[in-house]
Structures are given as C-alpha cells and as structure tokens.
Amino acid sequence: MTAAVSASTPLVGPGEYEVSLFRLYVLRAMYLVLVVGLGAMIVPEIVDHELTSRGVIASLLGAVWLLAFLGLRYPLEMLPLLMFELAWKAIWLFAYGLPQWSSGQRPATFAEDSFNIAFGVVLLFVIPWRYAWRRFVARPGARWH
Amino acid sequence: MSIAAARSPRFWERGDHEVSLARIYAIRAVSLLGVWGLFSTVMSLFDHAPDDRGMIKAMVSGLWVMAIIGIRYPLKMVPILLFELVWKLLWLIFFGIPQWWTGIGSPRLQEDLWSIGAFPIVCVLVIPWGYVWRHYVKEPAERWR
User: Fold this and answer.
1) Cα(A138)–Cα(A58) distance, rounded to whole angstroms?
2) Where are the domains of chain A?
3) Contact (Cβ atoms closer than 8 angstroms) between residue B9 and residue A128
4) What's the CA gap between A71 and A68, in Å, rounded?
5) Residue A9: its pLDDT value, please?
6) Do the Cβ atoms of B130 and A78 come closer than 8 Å?
7) What was the ipTM of the complex prediction?
8) Is A51 within 8 Å of B105 when comparing Cβ atoms?
C-alpha cells in the first residue's frame, strides 16, 4: 500500500520533480492542440498550394507542427518551442494586431490572424514560469572555458 | 596540474561533458549571427506600413529573442536550432526546389533561395547530433504518471 503510494507521484505539487504531473499534462495538452490545430490548418497548405506561393509562413508553422510531436514526449525539454510561440505572438499583437485594431487599417487577413494569434494568450498559463525562470535565467549558462 | 587537466578537457573533445567546448562556441556563434542578422527585422517592427500583415516579421523577431537566450544556454535552446532546420527544409522541399525546378515561382524566389535555402547546411553542421539523439530520441519520455 505505502509502496504503491510512494511510487505514484502526486498530481498537483511538484514533489521531488521540477514541475507537477498536472503541469506536464497541461503542457502536453498544449502540444496536442498545436499538433491537431496546425495539422488541420497548415499541413494541407504545405502539401497543396499555388505554384507561385511564397510559402514562408506555411513552412514556419509547419515546423512548429512537427516539433510539437516531440513536445508530447518531452514537454519540458521542448519548452523553447512554446517560448518562441509566445514571443512571436506577443510581438505580433503589440506591433501589428493592437495598433491595426485601434486604427482600423487592417490587412485582409486580419480577422483570421488575430483570432489564431490571440489564442496564444493561453501560453501565459501553460508555461511553468518558475521552472522557466530557473532553467533559462537563474541557472548558470553553459560553460565558456 | 593533473586536476586542472581533468577539469578542462581539450577544446575539441567532449570529455565528461554533453558536448565539446568547440560545439558550444559553434552554437553561440550561430546564435550571435542570428542576433546580429535579424536585428534589422526587429527594428522594422517599429516602422512598417499600417496595414502590413506582419506574420513573418513577428516570427523572425521571436527567433531573435530565442537567439539571445541561445548565447547563454546553447544546449537548452537546441530545439530552436532544430526548428530553424525543419522550417527551412520544409520550405526547400515544398516551395523552393519545385519552384526553382519549374521556373514558376514567387517573385521573391531568388532572394529566398539564398536567405532560406543556404541555412539548412549551417544548421546541419552546428547542431550537436549526438546530443540530439541522446536527449530527444533515446532518453525516456518525461513522466506520464
């Protein structure tokens, strides 16, 4: 009985681990959303597109889709992918989305883009910030000599 | 003397470390190149056409932020290097090469072929493949229960 209890980890608190099991599942759910969502939106665009299409956006998002599969297996190690997602979406919102929304001068793609990008706000709640702080700020960097 | 020698393995050798010091510097050099090379894109965020779509510029700026972190933590940011390799390969396979082959392409094809198409080679050379194999394939998945 006690052996079984100590073998399974608590769902909520981090215990002896870096983050809680609950957090790992939240992260995995996020990667799954990327796998399913981008899989439906972007993969068809990559495979079948106009011959003259530039394809930069589709390829960028296609790579997020492929790497999200790795995130299902290694949610913490692939955190840089989610940080990148949050960073570019926040940058877009502040540099393009919000100014265009308030001025009314919007590109034709505005409605679709702003919806998909604003959804990235959930990343604020998904990323384990204390862990991210320890891993990418507080801990010493890789060696220099 | 012998302790000092044991502590600092030769520049090109891994020793007890994850990767050699040479590899760490190679990744840092590429990160620095990214910070320097993408800076003009970041600056363009502050001065763009009011109805610019901005997706590519926002994503490139997101990569710029990740490149800054990569200077301090080159190994932890390996997922970003993988991302760079994957999106550029996707672009080459599904857009660049077919368009170059058929001669029917986007108006920016020549420019893109150089600025996107050349980089997968750099990524392949810089990415520490042994480390990637150990950390993203062989290592057991992060816990599920």
Assistant:
1) 35
2) 20-138
3) no
4) 5
5) 67
6) no
7) 0.91
8) yes
